[in-house]
């Protein structure tokens, strides 16, 4: 999580472009790949309420899914959380009045696991810094899951915020070793070792895995390398449009149907994020079944906001329809539960449930999502386990 770059974020996390002259938040010590991913997901989950809420929650199953850790071994998760609480973040920057400010804080002030829920908090001073969009932001979680090396992920995080300027600028080797988490190792004080074991492998993985291509350049004093910088270009093989802010929304069939209907790119992504794919798909089917609709986009917007096709007549909103069956009520409850989740949680929920399916059951879930009739009982059991008492 060292000096994480401001990537394009989903939903309410989306902010303006990163300014060039932004001070960094540096993290002391070496974070493992799992800890680095964990810190990013925790921040993503808390970002909207960093200042307004002192404590944040995320269910442990969603958390492990988002970091690509599919084990039930909670000891590993505990160890990673312990590592974040023991790791120090340090900042040195100008405040709004132009005054220099230095500060230090643990990455997490505390974390605890209880009843399948991870509760955690940041110190007020660090939360204030993390909440500043000019200082800190999140990386693309779809990209994050691809990395297998902590050094590569650290390099990506430290380079991506400079993608619009094309270069990181010169870093002293001391600073670079800190950013890579190897400052405490005498072995990496020798540039030959640093280059062979950290720089070259990390550059290769970033260029293969992420949406940017980085090229290292060094500066010498005499025969000794003293500074390093990285030139940065967008990776034409992995466009950010294809990865779509960590959620792959543009690759979704629902997104394609919205655009074909005449919905703008921005609005299509917004609707899918806000309502969930299953809910939007149902309203698209509903609007398509009405026939003769002159303004399909406007009618779809009304269907989404007013929930046409559920418990009232679409053409006469004040007239109730026939009583909804028990199965219909349970489907509606599943839809509401899914819609109440954050975009990242929805993605994790689907991945987790889908990973347990095979054959026809998996195919039906991929086509129909949470409305899959073939998986109805399993779906209800999944949500009952995730949200106890959900169907009472």
TrEMBL record:
GO terms for biological process: DNA replication initiation. Transmembrane segments: none annotated. It comes from the Bacteria. InterPro entries: Initiator_Rep_WH1, WH-like_DNA-bd_sf, WH_DNA-bd_sf. GO terms for molecular function: DNA-directed DNA polymerase activity. Pfam families: Rep3_C, Rep3_N. Belongs to the initiator RepB protein family. Residues 18-159 form the Initiator Rep protein WH1 domain. This is Initiator Replication protein.
């Amino acid at each position: 999580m060292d000096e994480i770059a401001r990537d394009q974020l989903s939903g309410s996390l989306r902010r303006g472009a990163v300014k060039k002259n932004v001070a960094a938040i540096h993290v002391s010590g070496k974070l493992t790949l799992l800890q680095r991913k964990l810190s990013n997901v925790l921040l993503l989950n808390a970002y909207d309420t960093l200042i307004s809420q002192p404590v944040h929650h995320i269910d442990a199953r969603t958390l492990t899914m988002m970091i690509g850790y599919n084990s039930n071994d909670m000891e590993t998760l505990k160890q990673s959380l312990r590592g974040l609480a023991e790791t120090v973040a340090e900042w040195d920057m100008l405040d709004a009045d132009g005054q220099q400010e230095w500060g230090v804080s643990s990455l997490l002030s505390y974390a605890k696991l209880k009843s399948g829920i991870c509760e955690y908090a940041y110190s007020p001073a660090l939360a204030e810094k993390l909440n500043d969009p000019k200082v800190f932001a999140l990386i693309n979680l779809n990209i994050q899951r691809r990395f297998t090396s902590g050094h590569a992920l650290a390099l990506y995080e430290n380079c991506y915020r400079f993608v619009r300027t094309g270069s990181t600028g010169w870093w002293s080797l001391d600073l670079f070793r800190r950013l890579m988490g190897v400052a405490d190792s005498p072995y990496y004080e020798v540039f030959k070792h640093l280059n062979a074991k950290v720089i070259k492998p990390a550059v290769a993985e970033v260029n293969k895995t992420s949406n940017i291509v980085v090229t290292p350049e060094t500066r010498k004093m005499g025969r000794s390398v003293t500074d390093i910088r990285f030139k940065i270009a967008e990776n034409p093989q992995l466009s950010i449009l294809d990865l779509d802010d960590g959620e792959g929304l543009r690759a979704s069939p629902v997104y394609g149907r919205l655009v074909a209907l005449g919905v703008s790119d921005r609005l299509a992504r917004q609707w899918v994020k806000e309502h969930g794919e299953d809910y939007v798909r149902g309203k698209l089917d509903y609007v398509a079944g009405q026939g003769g609709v002159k303004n399909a986009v406007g009618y779809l917007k009304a269907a989404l906001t007013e929930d046409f096709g559920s418990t009232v007549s679409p053409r006469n909103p004040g007239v109730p329809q026939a009583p909804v069956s028990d199965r219909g009520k349970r489907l509606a409850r599943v839809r509401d539960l899914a819609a109440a989740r954050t975009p990242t949680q929805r993605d994790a929920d689907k991945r987790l449930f889908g990973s347990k399916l095979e054959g026809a059951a998996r195919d039906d879930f991929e086509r129909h999502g949470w409305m899959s009739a073939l998986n109805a009982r399993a779906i209800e059991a999944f949500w009952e386990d995730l949200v106890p008492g959900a169907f009472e």
